[in-house]
Amino acid sequence: MPAPEAAVQYAKEHKNDFLEDLITLLRIPSVSTLPDHQGDMERAAAWISDRLKSMDFDNVRVMPTDRHPVVYGECLKAGKSAPTLLFYGHYDVQPADPLEEWKSDPFDPQIRGDDLFARGASDMKAQVVAHLSAAASMVHTSGLPINVKYMIEGEEEIGSPSLEKFIIANKDLLSCDICLNADCAILAPDTPSITYALRGLAYFEIRIQGPASDLHSGRFGGAIDNPALVLSELIAGMRDENGRITLPGFYDSVRDLSDDERAELSKLPTDDAWWQAQAGVKALHGERGYSAGERASARPTLDVNGLLSGFTGEGSKTVLPAKAMAKISMRLVSDQTPEQVHEGLIQYMKENAPPTITWEVEKLAGAPPAIVERDSVSIRAASKAFESVWGKRPLFTREGGTVPVVGMIQNLMGVDCLMMGFGLPDDNLHAPNEKQHLPNYYRGIETFIRFTHELAV
Ligand SMILES: [Zn+2]
Q1: 8 A C-beta contact, residue 154 and residue 32
Q2: Does 450 lie in the same domain as 346?
């Protein structure tokens, strides 16, 4: 039987084993944030490293970090001329509470209908075990047609605090041509999709100081400036009448949407009416010239996340506040960087803040955006793999949110980080009754096999 058919056949014959594997891993409550689960974290890491050893992977290691270890393993038997794929995943899960809202024990996986219910099912043990199962199917038949490395961390659900250091310290070990991050989903069971771009994030706190302390507005009002008004004016000026952000240089490195890309995005089942209904608003709003879907994924934004000043209790108090504070964040698109946006904000404040107050800007968080071109080798391979398993072309989506690890890997390692996983939007991630749609789990295994072979071509 020609590759990859032999591996696909193997996967079909071992369907039940691969389900058992997933259930075994799901029984381990590897909750990274809770110190009580330290032993479970070690057991989950050991389970994955044993699985890699059972496939004759080399250099399999459970590598310590400041908190939870990273599991590493490699199979480089395809040789130097073949491409190398680095699989990124995580074996940790979110806490299960509130427990009373679960229909079955979160760590005693139960199948109901097409779904397997357990904490960590979709996020992301099913995606990890699907890839391990795909690799096993190839190893036990025609062999892996490319080199494969695994980097599976245990701290994703607590923000991957050790990963950057780990990648920098192990750059040679992890070197690859492409990274695959399976921590994601498709649009619907019968609607395969590829997320090819994620937005980044820049988050700031702006603090305005007027008088040394709160003053009586009857005595001082009119004679001095009001920090709450100053802050409001500054914020209002950050956006113009066309919904564009006015910070200096904000759009300088934003990639334009091509007509072709816009045509592709317009195929998504989420039109403006959907966005309006979903948000429950009277009318949509945003940058002129773009659809709501484009604005929420392919264009950068600026939002006020919080405002604080003066008297906000019940009743009235005639105070002239001494200070005002705003939390402001921007969602970024390629090739913006949090640093550029920070500089733009500082410049804006220098140019626009009146001499009546002092101000500070504190950087609270930053993560770069990420994009993999739709005509890249990896996206074309993924697209073909989806098409042969699902019988239809995948849709292409951009995610409005931020997955810091994707941008981190792209920046630190200089490789594309492809998002390819088989969860669903309604899998109850981080919530009670998390599930994985099992037909997608099996199709995912086959898709990973075909994807690996497409990369070898
Ligand atoms: Zn995850």
Answers
A1: yes
A2: no
Using an 8 Å Cβ cutoff, are 177 and 85 in contact? yes
Mean pLDDT throughout 182-193?
95
407 CA to middle of ligand 1, Å?
15
Evaluate the CA torsion angle 31, 445, 404, 412 in order and state its sign. Answer: positive
Ligand 1 centroid from CA 299, angstroms: 24
If you measure from the C-alpha of residue 125 to the centroid of ligand 1, how many angstroms do you get, rounded to a whole number? 9
Identify the DSSP state of 69. P
- Cα 402 to averaged position of ligand 1 atoms, centre (Å): 12
pLDDT tens profile 278-301: 899 999 999 999 999 999 999 999
pLDDT one-digit tens code per residue, 165-175: 999 999 999 99
Same domain, 355 and 245: yes
Judged against a pLDDT cut of 70, whether residue 1 lies above it is answered with no
Ligand 1 center from residue 264 Cα (angstroms): 27
Same domain, residue pair 402 and 435: yes
What rounded mean pLDDT belongs to the chain?
Answer: 96
How many domains is the chain built from? Answer: 2
The per-residue pLDDT for range 257-270, each reduced to its tens digit, is 999 999 999 999 88
Domain match, 45 and 175 both: yes
The pLDDT value given to residue 158: 93
Pairing of strands 110-112, 84-90: unpaired
Asked which of 325, 343, 367 is the last residue of a domain, the reply is: 367
ipTM above 0.85, yes or no: yes
- Residue 241 located in a structural domain: yes
φ/ψ of 317, rounded to 5, equals -150, 120
CA distances for 287 relative to 235, 239, 292, 332, 414, angstroms:
16, 9, 9, 14, 32
Residue 214's domain comprises 201-253+295-367
Distance of CA 232 from the midpoint of ligand 1 (Å): 37
Task: Compute the distance from residue 118 Cα to the ligand 1 centre, in Å.
Answer: 14
pLDDT of amino acid 406:
92
- Report the separation in Å between the CA atom of 95 and the middle of ligand 1, taken as the mean of its atom positions: 13
| Residue 156 alpha carbon to ligand 1 centre in Å | 6
